[in-house]
């Protein structure tokens, strides 16, 4: 299968690209001129790396050259809390670029589009109530995608991600902060720790994308589906720290209640969408952490 991926240089994107290539797919990636694609360099052919210049004609030329069967859209700009200077970049990255992808996909006859959203689109479990502006841009893009779905032969699946983790992860995620603190004996000043987290190991995240891809290519024109990518169990931050201490055999210096909860913190995860991993064997947090720490130690 010929697949074009945006966001291929990020943590999830690079893991997905490498897996798809290993399984024999012809994978092409969109990168910006300043992108660092070291995470995929050992797997992907140089000629399959395409530089996007933020111009729709350039994007159209790439699509005409590649002629992908499927587009997997992972690229996004993430901001927990935005400043006024971030508004334009959030809209450009998360709405404009996605709309351009849809436009040239339709023009070039692409029929299958796999999108990435976030469970933060559903504060308090509501159908739509964004936690932050980042989540609002994700929802806005889905609304735009609806137009292309209805007026072309596209099929679209959106996977809404929760928290993800795994080895070789340089993102500023909570588990990486915990891991760093365990190695340096640094004091961690935390909130009260009662908020729930839905942590999914990277291999299981990739499993979700592969399952969605298989389902997508069997769908009919104008059909759309949305899934959550979720673990089998949600855990409070306090319980996550407890499990990390157990697996790593290291006591953390955590000061609970030293920081306020974030504005619009999701205290209890409530999701109406079906979990695409519901019937799959996936790692629980204890086993996932053990695997992550073992790989990190070996490297």
List the main descriptive attributes of the protein structure presented here.
8 helices; UDP-galactose 4-epimerase, domain 1; two-stranded parallel ribbon; 2 domains; 14 strands; Rossmann fold; 299 residues; single chain; 38% helix; alpha/beta; eight-stranded parallel beta sheet
Describe the structure.
This protein is α/β, with parallel strands linked by helices. Helix content is 38%, strand content 19%. The protein has 2 domains: 2-164 and 199-229, NAD(P)-binding Rossmann-like Domain (Rossmann fold), CATH 3.40.50.720; 165-198 and 232-271 and 279-298, UDP-galactose 4-epimerase, domain 1. The chain is built from 8 helices and 14 strands. Helix 2 runs parallel beside helix 3 (87-107). The longest helix is centred in the first third of the chain and has 21 residues, at 87-107. The protein is globular. The two termini are 32 Å apart.
Present the secondary structure layout.
Elements: E1 2-6, H1 11-22, E2 26-31, E3 49-51, H2 56-66, E4 70-73, H3 87-107, E5 112-118, H4 133-150, E6 155-161, E7 163-165, H5 174-184, E8 187-189, E9 196-197, E10 199-201, H6 202-216, E11 224-229, E12 235-236, H7 237-248, E13 253-255, E14 274-275, H8 285-298
Parallel strand pairs: 1-2, 1-4, 2-3, 4-5, 5-6, 6-11, 7-10, 8-13, 11-14
Antiparallel strand pairs: 9-12
Helix pairs in contact: 1-6, 2-3, 3-4, 7-8
The CATH C-level name of the largest domain is Alpha Beta
The oligomerization state is single chain
SS field, number of helical segments: 8
Number of domains: 2
Alpha carbon gyration radius:
19 Å
Q: What overall geometry do the principal axes of the alpha carbons give?
A: globular
**Terminal CA distance:** 32 Å
**The CATH architecture of the largest domain:** 3-Layer(aba) Sandwich
Order of strands, widest sheet: 3-2-1-4-5-6-11-14
**Fraction of residues in helices?**
25-40%
Q: Mean pLDDT, as a whole number?
A: 96
According to CATH, the fold-level topology of the largest domain is: Rossmann fold
Low-confidence stretches: none
Largest sheet: 8 strands, parallel
What structural category arises from helix and sheet content?
alpha/beta
Strand content: 15-25%
């Amino acid at each position: 299968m010929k697949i074009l991926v945006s966001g291929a240089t990020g943590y999830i994107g690079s893991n997905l690209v490498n897996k798809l290539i290993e399984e024999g797919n012809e994978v092409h990636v969109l990168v910006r001129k300043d992108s660092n694609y070291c995470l995929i360099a050992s797997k992907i052919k140089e000629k399959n790396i395409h530089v996007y210049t933020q111009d729709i004609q350039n994007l159209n030329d790439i699509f005409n050259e590649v002629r992908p069967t499927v587009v997997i859209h992972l690229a996004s700009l993430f901001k927990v809390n935005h400043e006024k200077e971030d508004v334009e970049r959030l809209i450009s990255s998360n709405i404009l670029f996605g709309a351009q992808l849809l436009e040239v996909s339709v023009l070039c006859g692409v029929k299958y589009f796999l999108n990435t959203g976030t469970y933060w689109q559903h504060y308090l479990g509501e159908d739509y109530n964004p936690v932050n502006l980042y989540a609002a841009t994700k929802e806005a893009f889905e609304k735009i995608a609806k137009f292309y779905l209805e007026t072309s032969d596209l099929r679209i699946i959106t996977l809404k991600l929760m928290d993800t983790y795994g080895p070789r992860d340089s993102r500023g995620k909570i588990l990486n902060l915990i891991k760093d603190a365990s190695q340096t004996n640094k004091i961690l000043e935390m909130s009260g720790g009662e908020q729930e987290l839905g942590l999914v190991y990277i291999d299981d995240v990739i499993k979700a994308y592969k399952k969605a891809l298989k389902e997508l290519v069997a769908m009919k024109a104008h059909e759309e589906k949305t899934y959550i990518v979720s673990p089998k169990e949600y855990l409070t931050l306090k319980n996550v720290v407890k499990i990390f201490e157990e697996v790593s055999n290291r006591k953390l210096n955590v000061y609970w209640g030293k920081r306020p909860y974030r504005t619009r913190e999701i205290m209890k995860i409530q999701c109406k969408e079906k979990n695409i991993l519901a019937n799959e064997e996936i790692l629980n947090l204890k086993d996932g952490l053990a695997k992550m720490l073992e790989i990190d130690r070996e490297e």
